[in-house]
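Input structure tokens:
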């Protein structure tokens, strides 16, 4: 069999002769010329067009452009190459690069990693989906990259953000009231500094929060799943029809990429939250971090672990600092910024995706889906049933607060504080041990 000839699209001549409807032998010549050119490579096409334009003489370049559709700079380039070859008798074997400039990732192989670091403290995610967004605009990110020595444009930053899974979203009217504190940006920067300091010393950092309560029973669960027949569930989602009301409290270990969820059936109270954290430290935390007595907790500004909840601070003092000897540093996210809490978009969102479309008919089913949650980046999740009754509405007096060994930080003191073990409590515990 003959060798196959690779051809490009045949150009249609637009000269005045070929535009006429009457038959003319010149029209056939031009058609055959364009067929011939379609079988040549780019350099050969330039040279042939150059020779034809030189043969025609004055006005040849413009005429060849009309016949072949080649640009005038391309034909002129071919004439220069042909003249150089006739003068030296040598052809430059080096291939001529085509396709424009190389992508910015080839010039700066680490640019995406750098952009990821710039966004590390500005990423937020919807716990019910994989969506992400950033607070900085593409122009701001471009300027920050240029300050680091990367010469890029905002369009390139836009493309890389899209490739990394980000997109622009419009506002949704879902929050009834939201305060914009003037210390908001300062708190984000301070949280970033605290995370870096603990990470550099290989100290544990956990992000905590309570996930949306779930009614256990034959109820519809949002989402879709692959199946031949849709599962039938109750027509109504009345709480009175539920077996119980599950309260999942999540703990996410940032440096280990591990999640822990403690599911209770009582209330979402400070005692329940701190009991879950203390259980995590006894069973998991101190085994992973055996040589430390420091712990950084990232929490929301409200809820059972809110910055103004006295019972939360009292429970941390008694169950973590005094009983376990931990020096606990707590950093709260500003009001209305809970979506920046890592447990939201790194743990809760993955759990919601895993059980999407699956009715949570029992606590065992719920725990099973939580334990089965994983990601390609290595996330592993453990789930436990937290038994017991945790009553809410417990009052903590001002006198009891004064007895806490609590030290507020200089920056945003209402949102950042450290609880240390009380010496008098440690002495009492030591005395009891000696008597035993």
């Amino acid at each position: 069999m003959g060798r196959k000839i690779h051809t490009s699209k045949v150009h249609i001549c637009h000269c005045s002769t070929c535009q006429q409807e009457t038959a003319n032998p010149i029209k056939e010549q031009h058609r055959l010329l364009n067929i011939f050119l379609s079988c040549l490579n780019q350099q050969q096409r330039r040279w042939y067009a150059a020779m034809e334009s030189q043969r025609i003489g004055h006005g040849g370049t413009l005429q060849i452009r009309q016949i072949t559709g080649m640009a005038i700079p391309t034909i002129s380039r071919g004439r220069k190459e042909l003249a150089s070859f006739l003068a030296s008798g040598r052809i430059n074997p080096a291939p001529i690069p085509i396709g424009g400039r190389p992508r910015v990732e080839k010039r700066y192989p680490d640019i995406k990693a750098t952009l990821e670091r710039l966004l590390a403290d500005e990423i937020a995610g919807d716990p019910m989906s994989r969506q992400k967004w950033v607070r900085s605009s593409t122009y701001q990110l471009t300027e920050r990259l240029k300050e680091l020595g990367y010469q890029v444009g905002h369009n390139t930053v836009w493309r890389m953000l899209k490739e990394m899974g980000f997109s622009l979203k419009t506002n949704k009217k879902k929050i009834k009231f939201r305060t914009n504190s003037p210390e908001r940006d300062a708190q984000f920067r301070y949280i970033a500094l605290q995370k870096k300091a603990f990470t550099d010393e290989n100290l544990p950092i956990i992000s905590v929060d309570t996930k949306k309560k779930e009614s256990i029973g034959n109820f519809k669960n949002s989402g879709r799943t692959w199946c031949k027949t849709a599962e039938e569930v109750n027509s109504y989602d009345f709480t009175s029809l539920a077996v119980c009301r599950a309260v999942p409290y999540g703990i996410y270990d940032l440096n280990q990429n591990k999640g822990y969820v403690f599911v209770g059936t009582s209330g979402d109270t400070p005692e329940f939250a701190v009991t879950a954290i203390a259980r995590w430290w006894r069973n998991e935390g101190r085994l992973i971090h055996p040589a430390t007595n420091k712990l950084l907790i990232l929490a929301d500004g409200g809820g059972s672990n809110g910055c103004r909840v006295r019972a939360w601070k009292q429970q941390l003092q008694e169950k973590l600092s005094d009983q376990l000897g931990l020096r606990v540093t707590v950093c709260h996210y500003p009001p209305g910024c809970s979506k920046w809490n890592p447990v939201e978009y790194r743990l809760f969102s993955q759990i919601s995706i895993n059980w999407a479309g699956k009715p949570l008919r029992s606590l065992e089913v719920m725990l099973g889906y939580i334990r089965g949650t994983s990601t390609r980046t290595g996330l592993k999740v453990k789930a436990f049933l937290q038994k017991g009754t945790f009553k809410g509405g417990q009052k903590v007096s001002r006198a009891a607060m004064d007895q806490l060994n609590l030290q507020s930080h200089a920056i945003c003191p209402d949102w950042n504080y450290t609880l240390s073990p009380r010496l008098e409590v440690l002495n009492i515990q030591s005395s009891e041990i000696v008597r035993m």
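Residues 408 and 417 are 4 Å apart (CA to CA). The mean pLDDT is 86.
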